[in-house]
Specification:
single chain; about 230 residues; alpha/beta; 6-stranded mixed sheet; 4-stranded mixed sheet; about 25% strand
């Protein structure tokens, strides 16, 4: 097993390579405006660091959001293109799940990432592996008030949600955590069995590599021009 994982749904452009037992290499650059420029060099960097070739990859995992439209598309389109060229399976994982897994927590908490427009994408977790609800998008002041918070979105609005609720855990969906979470789901099950469950939409973590959109994109096609009366 050699899993290439990456995520572009947040300002962190992150990639990692996992051999089924450990993360071999991981690289992350935080830049909200350069996802398209940074992703491929980041992938090339982790492959080189691990001493692996792209042709050695046996599965691809991409963060499926929620996230801003443009950045999210970069990762998912790249994942689908690479999987097609390599003839390997490709899976999506909710970006919030990757943040949650990276916390390593065993008690309930919330994950929040930046949704722009003074809102956050968020999910409710029983522990690092179990999402109870979400993903959803809301104003930070509308988040449940009785749980600790993880994620860069929570830290952005510390004055609103309460700084005392912020957890000292990784803020972004680092690809090492994303890869490890996916490997947990893939290990011990036959490839065909996993593929069938994922395709049915009933897998608790893995999904087809499609973006999770909770809002319409900012850019929209212009409507037809109005007719000018004579």
């Amino acid at each position: 097993m050699l899993v290439l994982a990456f995520d572009t749904a947040t300002p962190a452009v992150t990639a990692a390579l996992h051999d089924g037992e450990r993360v071999l290499a991981e690289s992350t650059a935080v830049d909200a405006r350069r996802h398209g420029e940074l992703l491929v060099p980041t992938i090339e960097r982790v492959l080189a660091e691990a001493g692996a070739a792209l042709a050695d990859v046996t599965a691809i995992v991409a963060g499926s959001g929620p996230g801003p439209y443009t950045g999210l598309r970069v990762g998912l389109v790249t994942a689908q293109a690479l999987a097609t060229s390599l003839s390997v399976p490709v899976y999506g994982v909710c970006t919030l799940d990757a943040v949650a897994y990276g916390t390593g927590l065993s008690e309930p908490f919330l994950v929040a990432t930046d949704a722009r427009r003074k809102e956050v994408f968020w999910g409710h977790y029983a522990d690092a592996r179990t999402r109870l609800s979400g993903p959803a998008v809301d104003k930070p002041q509308d988040l449940p008030a009785d749980l600790p918070l993880a994620g860069a979105g929570a830290r952005m609005y510390a004055e609103v949600v309460g700084a005392s609720r912020l957890l000292d855990v990784p803020e972004f969906p680092f690809a090492g955590a994303l890869a490890a979470l996916a490997v947990e789901q893939l290990a011990g099950s036959g490839a065909q069995e996993v593929a069938e469950v994922v395709a049915s939409g009933t897998h608790p973590v893995l999904s087809p590599p499609r973006p999770i959109y909770l809002r319409r994109p900012d850019a929209q096609e212009p409507s037809a021009p109005k007719k000018v009366s004579q």
